[in-house]
Amino acid sequence: MISDKLQQQLIDAAATARQNAYAPYSxxxxxxxxxxxxxxxxxxxxxxxxxxxxxxxxERIAIGxxxxxxxxxxxxxxxxxxxxxxxxxxxxxxxxxxxxETLIMLVDxxxxxxxxxxxxxxxxPESFSL
Length: 130
Ligand code: THU
Description:
Layout: H1 4-18, E1 31-36, E2 41-45, H2 58-68, E3 74-81, H3 89-97, E4 103-108, E5 115-119, H4 120-123
Parallel strand pairs: 3-4
Antiparallel strand pairs: 1-2, 1-3, 4-5
Bound molecules: tetrahydrodeoxyuridine (THU).
């Protein structure tokens, strides 16, 4: 259970990171934030490249940021973008790597009105892990 206050902090962190998105090719800005098991927050934004396939999604940047700071288990990830988009398949697998019960919050960037919540098991059932 994640308190409303903490959920709002996650949304704010993702929205702030989204402002730094490097997305000159798609113009689709995404911010993501993570709640680590000890309560610390980490965020990231999408980073595109002229060689389009090298683009890295906001979710994976946020996870890399948290891992770099020594955090490996996450209670929740929040994604802020237009239309509250759902994480791509690669990001789902990446999220799954660091928690089988991670809550995924999808939030619309226009006023934060559209919100959806899933577990990673709902978005990636029968997932691969070692
Ligand atoms: N993108 C993300 O950062 N996260 C998602 O969940 C969906 C897609 C990015 C990748 C690319 O920079 C842009 O959105 C358009 O696909």
